[in-house]
Amino acid sequence: MMATGPITERYDTNPLIDKWKAFGWHVSEIDGHNISEIIDVLEQVEKIADKPKIIIARTIKVKVLPLLKMLRRFITGSSPGSNMILRAVN
Question: Between residues 27 and 16, which one has the greater pLDDT?
Answer without folding.
Answer: 27
